[in-house]
Design a protein that fits this description.
With about 170 residues, the chain is mostly helical. Helix content is about 80%, strand content about 0%. Helix 4 (about 50-70) runs parallel beside helix 6. The longest helix is centred in the last third of the chain and has 24 residues, at about 105-125. The protein starts with a helix and ends with a helix.
């Protein structure tokens, strides 16, 4: 029973942190995370000893969500989700990888590879409808450009639609 309670608390903490990080950004007070999760600070620190540990866990969960969507969605639905991910989670990704030398490269590299692998599988499935020679890295570069320049979700959707038109046969 204790393990189930611990798992539930960890899930509640991650959920509360995800919500508060979206609302307030990476500097959200950890006391607020514990309060929203309905647990004490000691429980928060037992699961996530540092702010960095919590940020890494939340961002890793966001990457996992994006990767799971890739198993279900078509390429352009996933690219839209990727754009929204980059557009809205960039500050979290930077905060999660802050720390000792090498930490950013190791974590970012792992997450980037996972996302690239997902995009590669999606491009392979969609290959008959795509311009010959188009790679996942090409599409990720275009989508990242959309994410960094779009002013709002509608603008991002319009730009991804233009990318789609340009890369399809």
């Amino acid at each position: 029973m204790a393990r189930a309670d611990a798992a539930r608390n960890a899930d509640r903490l991650l959920s509360a942190a995800r919500e508060l990080l979206s609302e307030q950004g990476p500097e959200v007070p950890l006391d607020e995370v514990a309060k929203r999760a309905g647990v004490g600070n000691a429980t928060l620190y037992r699961h996530f000893p540092t702010r960095a540990d919590l940020l890494v866990a939340v961002y890793a969960d966001e990457v996992d969500r994006l990767v799971r969507l890739g198993a279900e969605a078509d390429l352009f639905t996933w690219l839209g989700a990727y754009v929204e991910h980059v557009r809205t989670k960039r500050a979290l990704a930077v905060a999660a990888t802050d720390g000792p030398p090498g930490r950013r490269a190791e974590l970012s590299g792992r997450w980037h590879q996972t996302i690239t692998d997902t995009a590669t599988a999606l491009v392979a499935r969609a290959a008959p409808q795509l311009r010959p020679g188009l790679t996942a890295r090409d599409l990720l570069a275009l989508a990242t450009g959309v994410a960094l320049t779009a002013t709002d979700p509608d603008s991002a959707r319009r730009l991804i639609a233009l990318v789609r038109t340009g890369v399809q046969r």
